[in-house]
Amino acid sequence: MAISDDNKKKALALAVAQIEKNCGKGSIMRLGMDTRIKVDAIPTGAINLDAAIGIGGVPRGRVTGIFGPQSSGKTALCLHVVAKAEEAGGGAAFIDAEHALDTEYARKLGVDIDNLLISQPDTGVQALEICEILVRSGAVDVIVIDSVAAL
Predict the structure, then answer these.
(1) Which residues of 4-99 form beta strands (DSSP E)?
(2) What is the pTM of this model?
(3) What domain range includes position 141?
């Protein structure tokens, strides 16, 4: 037995409402809708990159992956974002899975290392547990995991 068009529309409306309730407004939408969600961002310190991203920096409250070859500036970019977050009064954490953070370099990039939370976990599981606790606390604006490959 086929479902009528009217019942399909009602079922779809209920499904969309349930998704938005569970996942938040804007988690599902029709492409034809011109609904733009304001996304708060933390500047990267690179004006051209902020413009290319389209929202003025790295989005808050989202997972952002930065990929590139070795020594291409991934950690430096993350440290710039940390510095900008701290400059705006926010807190930051650096999960140093590689055990290679150069604190003097971080200081030169503007990071307030006296207030930066740092963890050098023994295992990938430990790193992710630390990250989860920090995320759930809501107390930090930026969490850097350097690097995912080292987990």
Answers:
(1) 41-42, 58-59, 92-96
(2) 0.76
(3) 63-150
